[in-house]
TrEMBL record, chain B:
Main location group: membrane
HAMAP family reported for this sequence: MsrQ (MF_01207)
Cell membrane recorded as keyword: yes
UniProt similarity note: Belongs to the MsrQ family.
Compartments where found: Cell membrane; Membrane
Gene name linked to the record: msrQ
The protein's role, per its UniProt record: Part of the MsrPQ system that repairs oxidized periplasmic proteins containing methionine sulfoxide residues (Met-O), using respiratory chain electrons. Thus protects these proteins from oxidative-stress damage caused by reactive species of oxygen and chlorine generated by the host defense mechanisms. MsrPQ is essential for the maintenance of envelope integrity under bleach stress, rescuing a wide series of structurally unrelated periplasmic proteins from methionine oxidation.
Lineage: Bacteria, Pseudomonadati, Pseudomonadota, Betaproteobacteria, Rhodocyclales
Keyword line: Cell membrane, Electron transport, Flavoprotein, FMN, Heme, Iron, Membrane, Metal-binding, Transmembrane, Transmembrane helix, Transport
Membrane topology according to the record: Multi-pass membrane protein
Pfam family, one: Ferric_reduct
Protein name: Protein-methionine-sulfoxide reductase heme-binding subunit MsrQ
Species the sequence originates in: Azospira oryzae
Keyword Ribosomal protein: no
Length: 265, 233
């Protein structure tokens, strides 16, 4: 269903949108299979998104379990048109619908100990055929530094193209961190934990030399098996040059000042 | 009873096989034309050409075991076409990489070959295929001599191994199933040859007893005639 009138955002890109068919028909969501057509094939009808709760806990003053309806009313929904760069070398421009994660963080009030945020996603073998095979260490876990999580660009998305998020794109609620490779943007979130230590994400466990905690889009740091210098925007013929921080350097480069991004990849 | 096609039938079989070898290429050409290769058609095309290179390489490697098991010696007459088809798909695979992936950026290609082992392995496999394709004619067989030609063309085993390593290395760990299946099939195809060799010649490399079955000697006029190779006049 439609998500009603949405606030436009000055943070939106004005680039040409990737067609809905590609956004919903070509993506990675290994809980539903490893082919990029698998999520669209297996998630709709299987993934049950009502009722749904997200437990927020850890180093916060107001731990709480939100229902999806609570979350939809937590802040005014905005449309955010973001570039999305997959670590595999392709990219899209997607009109997400959601609200800044910072709004939720404000409500639960992290205490002085909270330095990182961990996102745990659904891993239900009944609904998700991929979880039955030991491809990855389920459930899928991702993490951000608290200041990254609080950044105005970091979004909790509940929809795209003005409609409720399709199952294959991480319904009912997912993270969107546009300056990092797509896998950082955890889908179908069930738990958000505020922690002291840097979380170990699923991909860090699966391939520590290939996937780091930060995973900022960086054309200067190659994936061990392929170059990250260019990308194919879905629907385009000529490859584009990949931009540092996926083109969001003006907004986010300050988060990493003084850090060696080759080491903290 | 062994089936032995007449020269006419063999021509028909070859023509049919030739048309079959075109099918994957036509499938992808049609897919590009009708935009039905998914959201990332170039990726699908590159992968498709790579997979069909391996498929035809494997079919080429099936000829000897099939010939042996069925007694259909004429199958050998189809091997060159299968090998050249593998080479043709290899060329298309390389072309999609050089053009549609790298856009002829020589620097980027050189860096890729140097830095990325799976590209290095793929490039090596392609280079090894070149001399085999170039020496596939009867004239080349004659001028090299059957023995030398045969030892040169054993490089096809290396090409197949490198091709499978290239495939294993490029996929993510979570998608290893398909390349592992290819590796197993190749292990069977190569393992059969090892077993045959041991059976015929004793433990390799000793060759104390003469082989029970004469290998095809291309230089021998009568053997060549038996295979239908036109005689030099």
């Amino acid at each position: 269903g439609s998500l009603g009138t949405l606030r436009p955002s000055p943070l939106s890109s004005d680039e040409k949108l990737t067609p809905l068919k590609s956004v919903t028909g070509y993506n990675n969501f290994y809980e539903f299979g490893t082919d990029k057509e698998d999520p669209a094939r297996h998630a709709p009808g299987r993934l049950k998104t009502q009722p749904w709760t997200v437990t927020v806990e850890g180093e916060i003053k107001r731990p709480r379990t939100f229902s999806i309806d609570d979350l939809l009313k937590l802040a005014p929904l905005e449309e955010r048109i973001y570039r999305m760069r997959c670590v595999e070398g392709w990219s899209m421009v997607i009109p997400w619908v959601g609200f800044p994660l910072a709004e939720l963080i404000r409500q639960v009030e992290p205490n002085g100990q909270a330095r990182f945020v961990e996102f745990v996603t659904l891993a239900d073998p009944q609904q998700m055929p991929g979880v039955r095979s030991p491809l990855l260490d389920w459930p899928y876990v991702e993490g951000l530094r608290l200041d990254e999580a609080q950044h105005p660009l970091t979004l909790l998305a509940v929809g795209l193209y003005g409609e409720v998020l399709p199952a294959q794109n991480g319904a009912p609620i997912r993270l969107v961190v546009p300056w990092k490779y797509g896998f950082k943007s955890a889908k179908s979130i069930v738990r958000i934990r505020f922690v002291r230590e840097q979380p170990r994400s699923t991909w860090m466990k699966a391939g520590p030399s290939e996937y780091g905690f930060y995973s900022n889009v960086n054309p200067a740091v190659d994936h061990p098996r392929w170059s990250q210098a260019t990308e194919r925007r879905i629907g385009e013929f000529i490859k584009r040059k990949t931009l540092p921080f996926n083109g969001y350097a003006d907004q986010v480069a300050g988060l990493y000042s003084g850090m060696d991004l080759r080491r903290f990849f | 009873m062994t089936f032995q096609p007449t020269p006419r039938q063999l021509t028909a079989i070859k023509a049919a096989l030739f048309l079959l070898t075109l099918l994957p290429a036509l499938h992808y050409a049609h897919g590009l034309w009708s935009d039905s290769l998914g959201a990332n058609p170039i990726e699908a095309l590159t992968r498709g050409m790579g997979i069909w290179t391996l498929n035809f390489l494997f079919l080429t490697l099936c000829v000897s075991p099939l010939r042996k098991l069925s007694g259909w010696h004429w199958l050998l007459r189809l091997r060159r076409m299968l090998g050249l088809t593998a080479f043709a798909y290899g060329c298309l695979h390389l072309l999609t990489y050089l053009w549609l992936d790298q856009f002829w950026d020589v620097d980027a290609i050189a860096r890729d070959i140097w830095k990325r082992p799976f590209i290095t392995v793929g490039a090596t496999a392609f280079l090894l295929m070149l001399p085999l394709a170039l020496t596939s004619s009867h004239a080349a067989i004659r001028s090299l001599g059957g023995k030398r030609w045969q030892s040169l063309h054993r490089a096809v085993y290396a090409v197949a191994i490198l091709g499978v390593v290239h495939y294993l290395w490029l996929v993510k760990r979570v998608a290893l199933l398909d390349p592992i299946i290819y590796a197993l099939v190749l292990a069977i195809l190569l393992g059969w040859r090892v077993v045959e060799r041991i059976r015929l010649n004793g433990p390799w490399p000793t060759r104390s007893t003469p082989p029970a079955v004469q290998p095809v000697v291309f230089m021998k006029r009568d053997a060549a005639a038996a295979l239908g190779v036109p005689k030099k006049r």
